[in-house]
Amino acid sequence: MTGAGAAMRRVLESRERASLNGEQVAALAELAQRVRELNEAVVHTEVGADEVAAIRDEVAALTARLSAARREHPPLVGVGEDGTVRHLASPVGGVLNPIAPPVAIVVQPDGTARAEFTLNVLYEGPPGFVHGGVSAMILDQLLGVAASANGTPGMTATLDLRYRRPTPHGVPLVAEAKVDRTEGRKTFVDARIIGPDGRTTVEATAMFVMPLR
Ligand SMILES: CCCCCCCCCCCCCC(=O)SCCNC(=O)CCNC(=O)[C@H](O)C(C)(C)COP(=O)(O)OP(=O)(O)OC[C@H]1O[C@@H](n2cnc3c(N)ncnc32)[C@H](O)[C@@H]1OP(=O)(O)O
User: Is residue 102 a contact partner of residue 118, using CB atoms and an 8 Å limit?
Assistant: First the structure.
C-alpha cells in the first residue's frame, strides 16, 4: 500500500483538470448558490404534499440534465490574485459546492488565514447555534490553508478543539488561523472563531504532517 502523499499525487496527476475560465466558474458558482438557496428552502418549506412531489420530480429532471455531461473529477485548487484560496469544490467555501458553507478564506501578508462569514440554519446543531462539527470542519480548513500558506502543507494529524461558548448562526463571524511553529515534517497551527461581540467561541490547535510517501 502506498502512502497518502503518493495517493494524492496520483489523483492530482490523473486529473485532466480542465482549467475553468473565470466566466465558467462564475456561472457554476451562481448555479451552486441557487442550489444552496434551494437547500435552505427545503428545510423551511411548508408547501403541501402535492407541491412537494411536483418539485421533487422537477429537481430530479434538473439533476438528469446536469448529469448529461460529467467531469470525472472536480476542478482544481487555485489561489486568486488577492490571496483568496480557491478550492472550487471544497466542502468549506468551495464556490462550486452547494453544501459548502460560504467561507471565503484570504491569506494575509503575515500568513494569517482569515474568513468572514455568516452561517444559516442549514449548519445548526443546538437550536440557534452552529453545529460543533461544522465549526471543526471550518477550522480544519482554515488551519490547513495557514499551513499551506506557510509553505508546509500536510495532512491533519491532530485537531484539538475547545468550545468556549456557543457559536450563533445568522450573524457575522470571523475565523482566523496562524502557524505557531514547525518541527521537521510537523506544522503546528492555532485558530479560532470569533462571535459578533468579539469574543472567541471556539479555539483549535492542529498538527499537520507532510506525508513522506
Ligand atoms: C497554496 C495552495 C493552497 C491550497 C490550500 C489547500 C488547503 C487545504 C486544506 C485542507 C484542510 C483539511 C485537511 C484534511 O482534511 S486532511 C484529512 C484528515 N487527515 C487524515 O486523513 C490524515 C490521515 N493520517 C495520515 O495520512 C498519516 O497518519 C499522517 C500523514 C498524518 C502521518 O503519517 P506518516 O507516515 O507520514 O507519519 P509518521 O507515522 O512517520 O509520523 C511522523 C511524525 O508525526 C507523528 N504523528 C503522526 N500522526 C500523528 C498523530 N495522529 N498524532 C500525533 N502524532 C502523530 C509521529 O509520531 C511522528 O513523530 P516523530 O516520532 O517523528 O516525532
Answer: yes
Distance CA 189, CA 82 (A): 22
113 lines ligand 1 (CB under 6 A): no
pLDDT in tens, 150-187: 999 999 999 999 999 999 999 999 999 999 999 999 99
Query: Ligand 1 within 6 A of 212 CB?
Result: yes
* CB 150 less than 6 A from any atom of ligand 1: no
Domains and CATH numbers, the chain: 77-209 (3.10.129.10)
pLDDT value at 7 more than 80: no
212 alpha carbon – ligand 1 mean position (Å):
10
8 A C-beta contact, residue 98 and residue 35: yes
Flag whether the pTM goes above 0.80.
yes
**85 CA → ligand 1 middle, Å:** 21
